[in-house]
Amino acid sequence: MTDLNESIRDDDQLKQALLSLRQVPGPGLHQRVRAITQAPEARTRLALGAFLPLKLLPSNVSQRIAAPIVGLVIALVLTTFLVTSPVVRATLGEIEEAIGRVFLIVTDVMPDSSEATLIDEEQMTVEDARDLVPFQFSLPTYLPEGFAGTDIVGVSIPNEVVAEVVRAQWHDEDGNLLELCIHAHADIEPIQTIVGPDSLEVVQVNGSEAALVRGGWDNPSGEWRDQDETITVIWVLGDVQYSLLSHGDRLSIDELITVAETVR
Amino acid sequence: MVDAVRSEVRVDVLDVDTFTDLYCTHIDAIFNYCLFRTGNRVVAEDLTSDTFERAWRARRRYRPERAAFSTWLHTIARRVTTDWQRRQRRRQVADLTERYPDGAPLPESQIEESESQQRLRQLVAGLNNQEQELIALKFGAGMTNRKIGQLLGKKESAVGSAIYRAMQKLRTVWSEDGPG
Question: Domain tally for chain A?
């Protein structure tokens, strides 16, 4: 213990005083860090797509993420995070891809939903969501004619595996869906989006590379489908990743990118 | 101060043995960086553990040609700490008087700090984010101005000047409030 009273008279004394604030990590911390390399590995992943549209999710639901989702929607699986063991990963025959700052896994096998984790989602106003989540996000300032939404977004409640995901939806009278999922992005530890084979293209969003994905996982069959009806553009802006999905026959790729480019 | 030579070791493969060696080298620096940023030993231990866990999970993406392991590790620690601070701000519990939630007892080692040390820690916590970051890297993590510059993308001289200004600010506040 050091008594600093009246002892900080110059810079050297201040330096010594600051250094005296250093502490020794406890044995418990050493044990925790040592245990890290022994624990089964977990990867945070996002499975993209899955349909049998178009029932919209009920609000305030506790979702069994990545569980068989007959009748649930694209929207649900967009917020699907899977934690899989190395053994499961090895069976997927997957290839890791990076487009711009977007990290993806290409596989022809739908991720095993049996190891899904649970995510609770709450519905709230955009303003409340901005107060809650630990990142700053924007919404598109332009929506194609006919698409309408509310001021309500879904926010996944984080647990030890999954961080916050904000989900906004708009739809038109014909049932076409536009959905934006937003979460924090870290280059050192990016969330990986799982997509099917032959589904990726490189596009530009405001001059930066972005991933264009055609299709989504069909949950009952486990196949990658609907490559003509579902397109998603994924891009990273600052420390935030955005995934803008269009399902239906309304929007072209150019129109989808136009919407994406208004997220600033 | 951290062993500057060992912290510069280049790592090609982060296997278990290498990672264990590196954690032994860097745990003090990371823990004290987090301690300076949070002012809370319990939180600092959590964030330190989180930092190493993330580093282990992301080890395949570590590129030794881009940065020394220590720089990479501190990048993760900064992100982990910043995320924690954002959450704290959102929950409006950033007030120093509420750093120990739910009446949890102070960790023993912090109780043993003198009142003056506690006061100095609070003054550091009262600095703006950039100043606090610099003080934490310099005196918590024990980094040189050059290493801090590499980490923050700033010139060594600019780092030195900014640390000097932060220290002057600390001395001024210390004198104005007056000990005891």
Answer: 1
